[in-house]
Each structure stands twice: as C-alpha cells, then as structure tokens.
Amino acid sequence: MDQSISRVCCVLLSLFTGLASGLEITTTGQTSIEKASGQSVKLDCQFSLGAEDSGPLDIEWSLLSSDNQKEDKVVIIYSGDRAYVDYYLPMKGRVHFNSADPKNGDASINLMALQSSDSGTYQCKVKKAPGIRSRKMLLIVMVKPSKPRCYAEGPTLEGKDVVLRCISKEGTSPLQYSWKKTSDSKLLPASAVLDPVAGTVNVRNASSSASGTYSCTVANRVGTEECILNLNVTPPPNTAGIIAGAIITVLLILLIIAIILFCCCRARHRKKYEKEICNEIREDVPPPKSRVSTARSFTVGSQRSSLGSMSPSNLHEYALKPQYDKIPSSEEYERPPSRAPLPPPTAPKVAGPNLSRMGGIPVMIPAQNRDGSIV
Fold this sequence. Notes:
Blueprint: H1 2-17, E1 24-25, E2 32-36, E3 41-43, E4 47-48, E5 57-64, E6 73-79, E7 82-84, E8 95-97, E9 109-111, E10 120-128, E11 131-142, E12 149-153, E13 162-167, E14 176-181, E15 192-195, E16 200-203, E17 212-220, E18 223-231, H2 239-279, H3 289-308, H4 315-320, H5 330-334, H6 352-357
Parallel strand pairs: 2-11
Antiparallel strand pairs: 1-4, 3-9, 5-6, 5-10, 6-7, 8-9, 10-11, 12-13, 13-16, 14-17, 15-16, 17-18
C-alpha cells in the first residue's frame, strides 16, 4: 500500500515538473520479517535505473523512529562509489551491503547477530537524480524462550492439592506452556487443571497415581524449550507419632540437663567439704618417730651417766626419786589408755670392763631388803 502511494506521488511529481525518471524499486517481497535474537536477516532492496537517471547514485538505509519528535537513525550509506558501513555505532561490525558493488542494482543489506533492540521499521532510499525511490520493511527481533524451571509448589501429599509450575525468565511474548506426563499412562491426572499462559498444572486431591515424570514445554514464534519434573506423591505423615516423639525428646533433654546439674552441685559440695577438712587442726596426731628415737637415746645416755657418777650414799635417793624426765616410748604412747602402764624400763647392766672403758667408776651397790634396810 505504501509502495503504491509513493509511486503515484512520484508520477504526479514528474508530470507537474515535466521531468521523466526510470528509477524503480523492483523488490516485491514481504514487508514484515520475524527473526530470533542471535540470527541473521537480509533486508531486500533491488532497484533498476533508466537512461534519464544521470546523477550520482546514493543509497541510504535508516531506522525510522516511532516518535515523530525524534530523528531517524542512519544505519548505512553508499555515496560516491563508497560504502560507509560503521555509520551507526550500535550496529558496528554487524551490518554490511549484500553486494560488493551496490550500483549494479542491489541495495540489500545483511544484519548479523540480531538483538531485540534491532526491532523497528527500516527504510531503503535510492537516489539518482532526477529519480528518488524508497521502500520500508518491518523487522521484529524476538527472543527465544530460555530453559524453563519446573518445580512442585507446596507439600506433595496424598489428599492435598499439588501445583506444578513451569517458568521461563526470558522470551518474547506471547509464551505458551504445555504439560504432559511421560511415564506410566502418559496422561495427566483426571483432576488436573492446566493454565497454558501461567504455565501451571493444579492436581486436585492428589493420589499416589499422580506420581511420575512430567515434561513442560514453553514456546513462542521463534523457538521452544523444555524441562523435566519428577513428582512423588507420598502418604501424609503420622501426626500422633511425631508429637509423641517430640515429647519424648524434650523429656530426655530435660533429664540430661537435670543429671548434669546434679553432678555439678555434688562436685561443688565435695570440693567445699574437702577444703574445710584440710583447714581443721588435729590434736591427736603423734609426733614423728625420729624425735622419739632421739629422746630414747638421750634417756639411756643420761641414765648411764648417772650410774657412772652414783655413789653408795645417794643410791637410795636415786632409787626413790621419781623419774620425771623419762620420755615415753612410741609403744607406750600408742597403747590405749584403758590398759595399765608398764613398769619403767630398768637401766641396762654394764660390765665392769666396759664401764671403765666408757670412763665410769665401778662401785659396789649394797643389797637391800624389801623394807629398804641395808643387809
């Protein structure tokens, strides 16, 4: 329609100006193209020249702005027998003429590695004075759906409603979702409700027969993707058993805590008792045996010295004198108080030669009766 209007306008213009032109756009292909991102596309613009078209040849491709207040963006141009391919920076390195010499009648261009931002209306304008012709084409770059994620929402228990979801984060709308079961009967459960726009399957009052492998496919006009879900519907748990187990576990924990506290208190009490016992003063502890041995040796030596210096005149007094300086032996000290004390030990008899060798003077001790008189 646009092409017919432009041709009529050009004819009327040539009639009013008295000029004739043989330049024509000969391409009659589709004016709307859909491609997926990452693909390549060829925008056709074939033309023919007449003998009266004698001016320089200029070819200009531009991306028309959807807003009339903004300027159109020139993508690539051919002028003065030279191509300017890097004229539009967002498409730098991705656009070039289809023919190495466009003046032969091929003004078509190729777009590589398409992006969603490349979508829009493109215009091919061919100028060769006095002729001017143009052609417009709509390019729609669609994003292929990304690989979806399949999952079951909520608990998958028997008697509950189980919701299966399928979500694709990328992709040009409209996206269509479809579910199918790939195991067992390969049919969705009878109670399943499918939403192809939201990508959900609601299995009401699910049973164990709903378990199996499911496949979800998402598609748009430029591609499809698929994901797999393994569904396992299990019986509901034993609530009473869970509660009883929880109560037993709590009681066991409390019992362990009580035992630990009891052991700690007992250990602390024992430590305090031992500390008090260590601080007490015990009065019944016997003296060291080494001191007793020393005292005994001292007593025997003293008795020997006394015998050496004793005379007949003081012998009687010595026999009647109480021995206060006598130190009891360890056997006497350790004897229970209920027993009668043993008689004091008698001084050992020393022979005369030995007494002289020890420095003593032997004396004669008179015999006595039981009443103490000298015989």
